UniProtKB/TrEMBL annotation:
<dbReference type="InterPro" id="IPR039210">
    <property type="entry name" value="OGFOD3"/>
</dbReference>
<dbReference type="GO" id="GO:0016020">
    <property type="term" value="C:membrane"/>
</dbReference>
<keyword id="KW-0479">Metal-binding</keyword>
<keyword id="KW-0408">Iron</keyword>
<dbReference type="InterPro" id="IPR005123">
    <property type="entry name" value="Oxoglu/Fe-dep_dioxygenase_dom"/>
</dbReference>
<dbReference type="InterPro" id="IPR044862">
    <property type="entry name" value="Pro_4_hyd_alph_FE2OG_OXY"/>
</dbReference>
<feature type="domain" description="Fe2OG dioxygenase">
    <location>
        <begin position="139"/>
        <end position="241"/>
    </location>
</feature>
<dbReference type="GO" id="GO:0016705">
    <property type="term" value="F:oxidoreductase activity, acting on paired donors, with incorporation or reduction of molecular oxygen"/>
</dbReference>
<dbReference type="GO" id="GO:0005506">
    <property type="term" value="F:iron ion binding"/>
</dbReference>
<dbReference type="InterPro" id="IPR006620">
    <property type="entry name" value="Pro_4_hyd_alph"/>
</dbReference>
<dbReference type="GO" id="GO:0051213">
    <property type="term" value="F:dioxygenase activity"/>
</dbReference>
<keyword id="KW-0560">Oxidoreductase</keyword>
<dbReference type="Pfam" id="PF13640">
    <property type="entry name" value="2OG-FeII_Oxy_3"/>
</dbReference>
<keyword id="KW-0223">Dioxygenase</keyword>
<protein>
    <submittedName>
        <fullName>OGFD3 protein</fullName>
    </submittedName>
</protein>
<dbReference type="GO" id="GO:0031418">
    <property type="term" value="F:L-ascorbic acid binding"/>
</dbReference>
Length: 251
């Protein structure tokens, strides 16, 4: 179908927001007044996280993923649960490496991660007209590293179209913070919203945040990475406090 680029890598967008009708996905879950989406859509901003902060965050991902990594093209690091791709499986980073973790991540790393998460949360709340305090971080929230290596397991097949609310249930708002640059660090790997009439793509750029309501109104996929390495972090929010998780910390 026709492809429209919502955000080119060369753009520097303060805020771009496109409202779209909400799907019925939210009706099959408990509704939370003042948080569950009544206004749906998708946004992109380059004005919340700086490139320098994105580079610092990427270094956290690189250090963590250097401890493992998938045999295939997609590796995951979840600082909350400790899940880390290792070969064809996952290990718990905190159990597997124990006290050595303190040589990998610093207090400053976790503080930056928390600060970035809070700023993204505030921007989403502002754009959708809800209270930031009514949203809760939810799982899975994770770093991804993608390259052109052939898939070895279904976990490596990141390119299938999906709906976050259907896949994860708890998701109400999804965000992605890109940590590398399309056409400079990698080829392919664009983010694609799959609408009935056309595809709408976002070209990753370090520090760019894309965010959207998590229902079927935002069916999406990621193109296969053709060369280089693509880093991003998925940060997801729920309106249901029972599905909330805390920020990663030493405690």
């Amino acid at each position: 179908g026709v492809t429209e680029v919502l955000a080119h890598r060369s753009d520097s967008l303060r805020d771009k927001f496109i409202e779209i009708p909400c799907s019925e996905d939210y009706d099959s879950h408990k509704r939370f007044e003042g948080c569950t989406p009544r206004r749906c859509g998708r946004g992109v901003t380059d004005a919340v996280i700086t490139r320098e902060e994105a580079e610092r965050i990427r270094r956290i991902a690189e250090r963590g993923l250097s401890l493992g990594g998938s045999d295939g093209g997609a590796s995951i690091l979840d600082l909350h649960s400790g899940a880390l791709s290792l070969g064809k499986h996952f290990v718990n980073l905190y159990r597997y490496f124990g006290n050595k973790i303190q040589d990998i991540f610093t207090e400053e790393d976790f503080a930056l991660y928390r600060d970035v998460r809070q700023r993204i949360q505030q921007r989403i709340a502002q754009v959708f007209g809800i209270s930031s305090s009514s949203m809760y971080l939810t799982k899975p929230t994770f770093f991804s590293r993608m390259n052109s290596t052939e898939a070895k397991t279904t976990h490596d097949e990141y390119w299938h179209p999906h709906v976050d609310k259907v896949t994860y249930g708890s998701f109400d708002y999804t965000s992605l913070l890109y940590l590398s640059d399309y056409t400079e660090d990698f080829g392919g790997g664009r983010f694609v919203f799959m609408d009935a009439d056309s595809n709408k793509t976002i070209e990753p750029r370090a520090g760019r945040v894309s965010f959207f309501t998590s229902g079927s109104e935002n069916l999406h996929r990621v193109e296969k990475v053709l060369w280089g390495t693509r880093f991003a972090i998925t940060i997801s929010f729920t309106c249901d406090p029972e599905h909330g998780i805390g920020d990663p910390s030493w405690a």
